[in-house]
Design a protein that fits this description.
Layout: H1 2-21, H2 25-35, H3 40-64, H4 70-93, H5 96-121, E1 125-126, H6 132-149, H7 153-156, E2 159-160
Parallel strand pairs: 1-2
């Protein structure tokens, strides 16, 4: 029962961060889950399972509001899936002694980026259509980082002006 309460509190804190910033659920919840004793593999699996419902609802809402650039989706989805598969495979093959420091560094870098982005006010503005030469590696890296570290798509998200 105590573990369930701790997991619920982790989810609450992560959702508060995500609701306030518009991103950061994966980074926050992965970090807190590893801190409370879950292995990096279990933390990543837990975070991704918990994101299923919210991501489906969010995706549906963006689709209904016509807030989806299908050209970007077509160019980023395949490399993102490949990166996610590779990230999950690498994470599952690493021993816990290697995975914890790797995940800690990755999550710390993402957390610092998120804080700097919102404190300094970095808002990437796109004035032209992004090419596949940019989107394919972006999807590959974001998918890998997300699957191996528990967060990654939010910080790489870009918006059109």
């Amino acid at each position: 029962m105590r573990k369930l309460i701790v997991l619920a509190l982790v989810g609450l804190v992560a959702q508060l961060v995500d609701g306030g910033l518009g991103m950061g659920y994966g980074v926050t919840s992965s970090t807190l889950l590893v801190l409370v004793g879950l292995t990096p593999l279990a933390a990543s699996a837990s975070v991704h399972f918990s994101e299923l419902g919210t991501n489906l609802a969010s995706g549906f809402a963006h689709w209904r509001l016509r807030n989806v650039d299908w050209h970007v989706v077509a160019r980023i989805a395949g490399p993102g899936a490949i990166g996610a598969f590779l990230g999950a495979t690498v994470l599952s093959m690493l021993s816990t002694e290697w995975a914890k420091p790797m995940m800690a560094v990755l999550l710390a870098l993402l957390g610092i980026y998120i804080i700097v982005r919102f404190v300094v006010g970095i808002r990437p503005q796109l004035k032209r259509r992004l090419s596949s030469w940019f989107l394919a590696p972006l999807g590959l890296v974001a998918g890998f980082v997300d699957a191996s570290g528990g967060g990654g798509w939010g910080p790489v998200r870009l918006r059109r002006c």
